[in-house]
Amino acid sequence: MTVPLLYNKETSVAVIFCLPVIPALFPGTGERATKEPLDWPKRSQIVRGIAQGAVYLHKLCEPRIIHGGLKPGNILLDASLKPKICDFGISKALKADADKDCTGVVVGSRGFMAPEYKQGGCLSLQTDVYSFGATLLQIIRGKHISPSSLALSDESRNYGPLNKWAWNLWKDGNLMELIDPSLHDETHAAELKRWVQIALLCVQQSPEERPSMWDVLLMLSCDSVILPEPKLPAYYC
C-alpha cells in the first residue's frame, strides 16, 4: 500500500515532506552541524521524541505504518531540538490483518537493519524496534565507533557495529566505556546505563523478544518499570 500524505507536529512525525531543519544530531555531521556535542538532557529529549513518533506510526496511524529506515541520518531536528522522522522511501502501510510486509527486496543502511529483514526482506513493526535500538546506541555513543581492538566478524562490523561492544560492556558492568566521553557526568550515569539496556532489548536477534515501541516509550519515560534481562544481541559474532 502507498503511504498516505501525513504530517503530525504533535507526535514528531513528518511523512513524505521533510525539510533540512537544524541542528544536526551529532557535531561534524552535515553543513549546519553544531560545534559542540549535545548534552544528555537534549539527547534524551530527542530519543523520547523519536520513540513517540514511532508509536504514532505503529499504533495511532490508520493504516499502521512501518518506517523501515529508522537511523540517525533520518532524524531531523528543528530549532527547539524536536525530532522529525523523515525519509519514508521504503515505508510500508500495513493492511488491517497483516503484521509484516515481505517483498524479498532488501535496501537501507546496514548498521540499522534487523537480521530478519537482511535475510528475507520482511519488514515489520519489530524491524523498526530493532532500528530504534541501534539508533539509541549510536546516540549514546555519539559519532565514535567501537574500538578497532574489538574482535568482530565482517557481518557484525557491517550490520551491528555497536551491538557486541555494548553487550560485553553491559555484562561486565563497564558501560561508561561505551558512552560518549562528553557525557561522562555521574548526574546522568544511571539513566544512561538503563537506556543502554533498553537499546539491547530492542536489538535482540528474535523479533518476538523485542519490546513494542509502546513498551519502549514506557521504559524510557518511567524509571519504575522493571527492565527484562536482554539476551545476546543480533550480529553478535
TrEMBL record:
GO molecular-function term, one example from the UniProt record: protein kinase activity
InterPro entries: CR_Ser/Thr_kinase, Kinase-like_dom_sf, Prot_kinase_dom
Protein kinase domain location: 1-226
Keywords (A to Z) from UniProt: ATP-binding, Kinase, Nucleotide-binding, Transferase
Entry annotated with the keyword Glycoprotein: no
Keyword Transmembrane helix on entry: no
Name of the protein this chain belongs to: CRK10 (CYSTEINE-RICH RLK10) kinase-like
